[in-house]
Amino acid sequence: MRHTDLTGLLVVVGVLTAATVLGWWWRRRDGRIRPVVADDRPVDSNSEPASSALAALGVRPGAVTLVQFSSDFCAPCRATRRLLTDIEGRVDGIHVVEIDAERHLDEVRELAIWRTPTVLVVDTEARIVQRVSGVPDRDELITALRPLLAGAAR
After folding, report:
1. Are residues 107 and 120 in contact, defined by beta-carbon separation less than 8 angstroms?
2. 62-78 pLDDT, tens per residue?
C-alpha cells in the first residue's frame, strides 16, 4: 500500500468516526428535557430579557405553560404540536402556546432558540425552568411537569 492510499484511508476512517460520535451525541440529546437555571424575577420584570420575550409572546404568570417554537416546514414540529395538545387536554393546569419562530425572530434570539421544535417549560411564576430541543418523550415530559403542577396547587 502506498503512503497516499494510507493517508486517504485514515482520513475516511477519521471522518466516519467523527460522524458516528456526532450522530450518537445528537440522538442522545434530541428530545431530552434539560433544566434551565431560573432567576427569581416574574415575567413583569423589565430587567430580565427572557421575561420580556415571554411577555411579548403572551406568557403570563399563573399557569404552567409549554411554549413551542415551530416553523412551517418542520415535520417534527407537527408531531410535537400533537403531543403538547394531547398533554394539555389530559393534564389539568397546563397551557400550550405555539410560536412561529420565523415571525418572532427577536424573541427567538433572546431566548436562544437554535432549532425547531424547541419547547420551553415555564412555571407558574413565568420563569423558564426546562427546555427540550426536538420532539419530547411524552412520559418524560409529564413526569417533569408533575412537580410544577404540585407547586401550582398550593
Report:
1. no
2. 899 999 999 999 999 99
Question: CB-based contacts of 48: which residues, under 8 Å, 6+ apart?
Answer: 39, 41
Residue type, 100: D
Half-sphere exposure of 139 (CA within 13 A, CB side): 0
Average pLDDT over residues 49-65: 85
Count of CB atoms situated within 10 Å of the CB of 67? 25
State mean pLDDT over 99-128.
94
Region 140-149: what's the mean pLDDT? Answer: 92
CB atoms within 10 A of CB 56: 14
**Cα torsion angle, 28, 133, 76, 109, sign:** negative
Q: What is the pLDDT of residues 15-50, one digit of tens each?
A: 888 777 777 766 666 677 777 864 443 433 333 447
Q: What grid cell was written down for 24? A: 450518537
* CA gap 100, 104 in Å, rounded: 7
Task: Count Cβ atoms within 10 A of the Cβ of residue 73 and give its class: 0-12 exposed, 13-18 middle, 19 or more buried.
Answer: exposed
Grid cell in block for residue 42 = 416574574
Count other Cβ atoms within 10 Å, centred on residue 20: 10
Task: Tell me the three state secondary structure of residue 129.
Answer: strand
